[in-house]
Design goal:
Elements lengths: L4 H12 L11 E7 L4 E5 L12 H11 L7 E8 L9 H10 L5 E5 L4 E6 H4 L11
Parallel strand pairs: 3-4
Antiparallel strand pairs: 1-2, 1-3, 4-5
The structure holds tetrahydrodeoxyuridine (THU).
The site of tetrahydrodeoxyuridine has 13 residues, from helix 2.
């Protein structure tokens, strides 16, 4: 499967409209492209109590698991934020990305203006705390 970076960007921009972000007004979208061609979409969903807010990445990853897929089914993870800067995943999402994806999984990061860079999961969380640490 070959994904087009511009098409992915326009899909992420369209998906960002679904974000529920009345408090921050900062929209984030995430699409997990599976090897079988399916797409799993996530957006940030905020809450007046703030704490229950879920980020776009974890929104997509939890659906991936609920739908019966796992790390071996993933082709590309694409992430968009409304940022002018890099707009990289928060700490909690880094830990969840590490838990549920291969450490070499490619993540394409886009911001408000453009494709920024391609990263690997391990880039976001070197020395991660993992299941190995609790054996
Ligand atoms: N947000 C995400 O969805 N993903 C991240 O990795 C960073 C932050 C959301 C949470 C909140 O709804 C808004 O961005 C502002 O922090």
């Amino acid at each position: 499967m070959s994904l087009n970076k511009d098409k992915v960007y326009s899909d992420l921009k369209e998906l960002r409209k679904n974000a529920y972000a009345p408090y921050s007004n900062f929209r984030v979208s995430c699409i997990i492209y599976l090897k079988n061609g399916n797409e799993i979409k996530g957006v940030n969903v905020e809450n007046a109590a703030y704490n229950p807010t879920i980020c776009a990445e974890r929104s997509a990853l939890t659906q991936m698991i609920a739908q019966g897929y796992n790390k071996n089914d993933v082709e590309i993870v694409a992430l968009y934020t409304d940022s002018e800067e890099l707009g990289s995943p928060c700490g909690t999402c880094r830990q969840t990305l590490f838990e549920l994806l291969l450490e070499n999984q490619e993540i394409w990061v886009y911001n408000k203006n453009k494709f920024v860079n391609s990263f690997k999961v391990i880039d976001f969380l070197p020395y991660a705390f993992t299941s190995k640490n609790i054996k």
